[in-house]
Design a protein that fits this description.
- By secondary structure, the chain is α+β, with helices and mostly antiparallel strands.
- The chain is 35% helix and 22% strand.
- The protein has twelve helices and 16 strands.
- It has helices at residues 13-23, 41-56, 100-117, 142-147, 155-158, 167-173, 202-206, 244-262, 298-318, 338-350, 365-369, 396-415, and strands spanning 60-63, 69-73, 81-87, 124-129, 189-197, 211-216, 218-227, 231-232, 267-269, 273-276, 282-283, 286-295, 322-331, 334-335, 356-360, 374-380.
- Strands 1, 2, 3, 4, 5, 6, 14, 15 and 16 form a nine-stranded mixed beta sheet that branches.
- β1 (60-63) and β2 (69-73) form a beta hairpin.
- α1 (13-23) runs antiparallel to α3 (100-117), α8 (244-262) packs antiparallel against α9 and α10 crosses α12 (396-415).
- It is globular and about 80 Å long.
- It starts with 12 loop residues before the first helix and ends with a helix.
Length: 417
């Protein structure tokens, strides 16, 4: 068994930061921020870039059946693989670090370990996961779900983007065969470790540099349809209207109040709204909006959703409106693996940092990959808690620290077994 002192792994800091900047040039928008939707030209350019970095690091590279890009170092004893990585796609107008940090840091960590310590005992891999955000297709975690054997039957043929292109046709456009999706499944992964920006304010506000995720909050998505009566904007008296949009607005305020009164980590967000007939001089007859409700405790998430539905129905009765609430998705809270999490804590201590235990309110590939691996997740601060926007940022010294801690954890997992 190889042994190491409790020391932090050195990395090529300049190369790490340069590559993050270079990746941020793939998918830039004239209005600011990035957009790398799944199977788009910007996405293809980004995956080609990381593929080249993996090869430069001496890794065996491949693209799997859904477009996840893998770099691999064979271990002297084989066995189940140790994997790190994150996603390569972005939201529209997103920043340069969401997902990208975990991809670039993973490549850097594995390449530096190989250069400094030679061949690992265990198989060691990094991965650029093809999609997490669902910004083109409503397929959140497509790449991770393919790895974990969670893709639905005929999903690629059923799902379409806003222009009507099926996911299957988009796959074909980048040289992938949708009939071979099942070949992306991995059943040989021991541990998966993901480095990610926090995307929230906790670490930044507390002036702390590292967080270890213990649980990823559960998420419920609701579709709320409010029906009233369309009417003439000039002729219909205010006290005789059944305005669906005003009713929806009252419901939204009630939803925010419910989440606020429940307290952290409960959150509820109305992210989309549409009205019919959506005309300047017509009282809206139909309003439809989405709700994203999250909590790290499954029982309390269920209670949060129930209170939201109850409040919407109450507003409907008070305003003589019909209300239908439909659950679109319900993902339970997911705990991280204790052993992998403790490995991350030890790696942080090697840097002289006692990492904060944290709940992740945002969803991540890690929550899906718990079905296939023993997962651990490491956070670095987001300045001002900002993410999913062009000015998303993390201090360079925290990017470097997070990558060194990641590499140190990977060394323990892949070199000491």
């Amino acid at each position: 068994m190889k042994t190491f002192q409790h020391e932090l792994v050195e990395i090529d800091e300049r190369r790490l930061l340069r590559r993050l900047d270079e990746l941020a040039q793939r998918g830039t928008l004239p209005s600011g921020g990035l957009y790398r939707p799944l199977y788009s030209p910007a996405w293809s350019a980004a995956t080609e870039l990381v593929h080249g970095w993996m090869k430069d690091g001496g890794l065996l590279t491949r693209r799997d059946a859904v477009g996840n890009v893998w770099g691999r170092v064979e271990g002297s004893r084989g066995g189940r693989a140790i994997v790190t990585g994150s996603h390569i796609d972005t939201v529209r107008g997103g920043g340069a670090l969401d997902g990208a940090l975990g991809v670039v840091a993973g490549i850097e960590a594995v390449a530096d370990l190989l250069e400094r310590y030679g061949r690992p005992t265990r198989i060691l891999e990094c991965v650029a996961i093809c999609e997490e955000e669902g910004s083109r297709f409503s397929t959140n975690f497509w790449g991770a779900r393919a790895i974990a054997d969670r893709v639905e039957v005929d999903e690629a043929q059923r799902v379409r983007d806003t222009e009507g292109t099926t996911l299957a046709d988009a796959m074909r456009s980048v040289g992938l065969d949708p009939t071979k999706i099942a070949q992306a499944v991995r059943r040989d992964i021991d541990a998966f470790v993901e480095l990610h920006i926090e995307q929230g304010p906790v670490l930044d506000a507390a002036l702390e540099r590292l967080g270890v995720v213990t649980v990823i909050a559960g998420t419920a998505h609701l579709d709320v349809v409010v029906r009233g009566e369309p009417d003439h904007a000039g002729a219909a008296a205010m006290d005789r209207r059944h305005d669906a949009l005003l009713g929806a607005a009252a419901m939204m305020l009630a939803i925010a109040k419910i989440a606020g009164e429940m307290g952290a980590p409960a959150v509820a967000t109305v992210g989309t709204i549409a009205v019919e007939p959506s005309q300047l001089n017509v009282v809206p007859g139909v309003a439809r909006f989405s709700v994203d409700a999250r909590h790290s405790d499954n029982r309390q998430r269920t209670e949060l959703v129930a209170e939201i539905e109850k409040a919407c129905k109450l507003v409907g009765r008070e305003r003589d409106l019909s209300v239908d609430v439909h659950a679109l998705r319900d993902r339970p809270a997911v705990p991280m693996n204790d052993r992998t999490t403790e490995t991350l804590r030890r790696a942080a201590r090697a840097a002289g940092v006692e990492a904060r235990d944290m709940t992740s309110g945002a969803g991540h590939d890690s929550q899906i990959l718990t079905a296939a691996a023993n997962v651990g997740m490491l956070f670095v601060p987001s300045i001002g808690g900002r993410s999913h926007r062009a000015d998303e940022a993390t201090a360079a010294e925290d990017v470097v620290l997070g990558t060194r801690v990641l590499a140190t954890a990977l060394r323990e997992l892949a070199y000491t077994a």
